[in-house]
Design goal:
Blueprint: E1 5-9, H1 14-28, E2 33-39, H2 49-63, E3 67-73, H3 82-95, E4 99-103, H4 110-126, E5 142-146, E6 156-159, H5 164-172, H6 175-178, H7 189-206, E7 211-214
Parallel strand pairs: 1-2, 1-4, 2-3, 4-5
Antiparallel strand pairs: 6-7
């Protein structure tokens, strides 16, 4: 299997919230796109793992995903550690994505922060010929971050104006999270509208109706004496 675009998501619905428009746009253009959910979202205040799994399948159909899987890491315990990194690297070798999108490392949720580092480690491992990872080595062409629960300064804006309704339908597929009473500013109807408003904001700056922001990893800095 070869994917053009793979989104690494800490919990079911994070891929849709952060990069659903980009996924839908790529799928509509005939690209093979996929999502790897790292956890089942078992600690969520709303819903349960079985419900969220069904919702993830429904969202995948809405977006036109070619592939979706769940790594089964513990919700609330995502860590940048060797064992999960090898497991994720093996999936990268299996799906061989050209572009990988991971959460932005600057976020309020510890799982999102850890997922950003874990994805970066896994991308590195996947490309090492001598790494203890199943499958043939693979190096994605690009590695980018999508926003989660904190604003980011993007390096790239993706025009998602023509798929904004698809994006919203995919998010609404997670009815356990985005219907009923708001739990927080990110979970509930208000959270969905805030995400849509964010896309309007970036779209206005880019001269289009709606846009999704993506960011390149910050370069490493070398301190010299």
């Amino acid at each position: 299997m070869t994917l053009d675009l793979l989104v690494v998501a800490p919990h079911p619905d994070d891929a849709e919230l952060g990069a659903g428009g980009t996924l839908a746009k790529a799928a509509r253009a005939g690209r093979a796109v996929g999502v790897i959910d790292l956890t089942r979202g078992e600690l969520g205040s709303k819903g349960d793992p079985e419900t969220r799994a069904r919702e993830a399948e429904a969202a995948a159909r809405v977006l036109g995903l070619a592939w979706r899987a769940n790594l089964g890491l513990p919700d609330g315990g995502v860590a940048d550690a060797p064992e999960p990194a090898r497991a994720l690297a093996a999936l990268l070798r299996r799906t061989r994505p050209r572009v990988v999108l991971a959460p932005h490392p600057e976020d309020r949720h510890p799982d999102h922060v850890a997922a950003a580092a874990l994805a970066r480690r896994a991308v590195h491992l996947a490309g090492l010929a001598r790494a203890d990872v199943e499958g043939r080595p693979h190096k994605p062409e690009r590695f980018l971050h999508y926003p989660g629960n904190a604003p980011v300064r993007p390096d790239l804006l993706v025009d998602v104006s023509d798929v904004i309704e698809v994006w919203e339908a995919a998010v609404r597929a997670f009815a356990s999270q985005f219907e009923g009473e708001d739990v927080s500013e990110t979970v509930g109807p208000a959270g969905l509208e805030a995400r849509r408003a964010l896309r309007r904001y970036w779209g206005n700056l880019a001269g289009v109706a709606y846009a999704e922001p993506l960011a390149s990893p910050r370069p490493w800095l070398l301190d010299l004496p």
